[in-house]
Amino acid sequence: MPQFANPWFLASALTIGIIVWLVLRRRGKRAPAALFTTLPVISKLPQSRFKSRLRFLPPITKILALMLLAIALARPQEVSKGQDVHTEGIDLVVALDISASMLAQDFTPDRVGAAKQVAMDFINGRPNDRIGLVLFAKQAFTQCPLTIDHEILNELLSGVEVVLADPDNTAIGQALASALNRLKSSLSKSKVVILLTDGENNYGLPPTTAAEAAEALGVRVYTIGVGTRGYAPYPARDMFGRVVTQRVPVSIDEDLLRSISSQTDGKYFRATDDQKLRQIFAEIDRLERTKIEVRAFRRYRELFYYWAGGALGLLAVGWGTAVLVTRGML
Questions:
Q1: What gap in Å lies between CA 109 and CA 103, rounded to an integer?
Q2: How far apart are CA 279 and CA 285, in angstroms?
Q3: How many domains does the chain divide into?
Q4: Which of 16, 29, 112, 285 has the most CB atoms less than 10 A away?
């Protein structure tokens, strides 16, 4: 976008133009007069129309040169604007319980289905973060390492299914340890684990040991207990193979989850329905924001030398014409 650094010089160009216009207008109204005694005298005068016209060229070029010089002094510039964006992302691992109890239907369509949808929305809202996925039941494993490719991550997450083998086993400690393995070599200033479960640790590494490791690595752990209070509907098959709904007790070791989050400077949440689960992820999103620095800048490209060059060119043409006419070479 063009602009002028010294716009007041434009007034000089405008003033010169107005003065020239007034002078030419006044001369145009003045009647030409020539007093000669006889017509033969007039016939003896030089009749070079081209040469007479050239006599007006030097003053015109001077006037135009002054106008161009005034524009050059106004310093026309071409301005381009932009931004430098620096992001300091967060390395984050979602550890998701896929044991059989996650099929309980106190969420829509069930606990694991609701958790997957909310987690994908959460991931989509954090484009600058590296995010990984750990799944666990009796064993814990990495479904996706830390990645900035959230499209692949969401595709893997959408394909997650509940593990029906060993349905009564939940390895919370092992899940946390697997998530820490993804983060231990991270150079990010902020490292986070979101651990979501609906049960109690009953297999593998003690969660307290994993929490100590998280504290040592500077990893914050947010724990989420998923399930209504009391009893929840759970799909099962009767003796004829038909799907029926049973009422099963909800048993979450909230004291353990609170202890893990407290030890790692995180926070424990209880999600009793879909809306509450979405609110929890929204709060974690606010607590763990990516640092983004934006610096605006402007670049200037000077254009005055074009106008100054034009002024010098006009002066050269006017001077050359005046010399040639004076010496009779034209």
A1: 9
A2: 10
A3: 2
A4: 112
> For the whole prediction, is pTM greater than 0.90?
no
Per-residue pLDDT of the chain (330 residues; tens, 9 = 90+): 667 777 777 777 677 777 776 766 665 555 555 555 555 554 554 545 556 666 667 777 777 877 788 888 888 888 777 655 555 679 999 999 999 999 999 999 999 999 999 999 999 999 989 999 999 999 999 999 999 999 999 999 999 999 876 777 899 999 999 999 999 988 888 999 999 999 899 998 999 999 999 999 999 999 999 999 999 999 988 777 788 888 999 999 999 999 999 999 999 999 999 999 999 999 999 988 866 454 655 777 887 778 788 878 877 877 777 777 666 555
Per-residue burial over 274-289, b = 16 or more CB atoms within 10 Å of its CB, e = otherwise:
beebbebbeebeeebe
Q: Distance between CA 203 and CA 90 in Å, rounded?
A: 30
For residue 167, what is the domain's CATH number? Answer: 3.40.50.410
Give yes or no: residues 190 and 320 share one domain. Answer: no
The full DSSP string for 83-94 is: EEEEEE--EEEE
In-domain check, residue 36: no
By C-alpha distance, which of 68, 65, 70 is closest to 316? 65
How far apart (Å, rounded) are the C-alpha atoms in residues 260 and 93? Answer: 15
**Burial of 7 by CB count in 10 Å (0-12 exposed, 13-18 middle, 19+ buried)?**
exposed
**CA–CA gap between residue 313 and residue 330 (Å, rounded):** 20
What single letter denotes the amino acid at residue 308? A
User: What angle in degrees, to the nearest 10, is found between the helix axes of 10-29 and 57-73?
Assistant: 160
